[in-house]
Amino acid sequence: MENSPELKALIRKNASLFWYTKDSEKENLPLAVVTEFFFNYADEVNVKALINLVGKQKLATVFFDQLNSSVRVAGNYNVLSRNFFSLYLAKYAHWNFK
After folding, report:
1. How far apart are CA 12 and CA 73, in angstroms?
2. In angstroms, how far apart are the furthest CA atoms of the chain?
3. 3-class secondary-structure state, position 28
4. What ranges make up the beta strands (E) of the chain?
5. Burial of 11 (0-12, 13-18, 19+ CB in 10 A)
6. Which of 14, 52, 58, 62 is least enclosed, having the fewest CB within 10 Å?
7. Mind listing the pLDDT tens digit for each residue in 10-32?
8. pTM of the full structure
C-alpha cells in the first residue's frame, strides 16, 4: 500500500530518522517502520504530527501488532518508548492490549 502524500511529506521532513534507507525508498516505507522510528527517535512535534495524520486507532493497531508479533520486533522499541506509547495508546486509543 502506498503512503498518502501527507505522510510522504512528513517522512521527507524527517528523512534523517531513516538514515540507512535509500532516499528513493524512504517515502514508501511501511507504516510499521515509520511508526517504530518516529516513536523511538522523533521529537514530540513530529510524533504529534504522525498521530494527527494517521490516527490513534491505526497507530495503536500497528504498534500493538508489532509488540505482540515477536520478542525481537518488540525489542526494536527502546524501553521508555515502548512503555510510554503502550500507556498512551491504551488510554487514548481505547486499546486493550493485555
Report:
1. 24
2. 38
3. coil
4. none
5. buried
6. 52
7. 999 999 999 989 999 999 999 99
8. 0.89
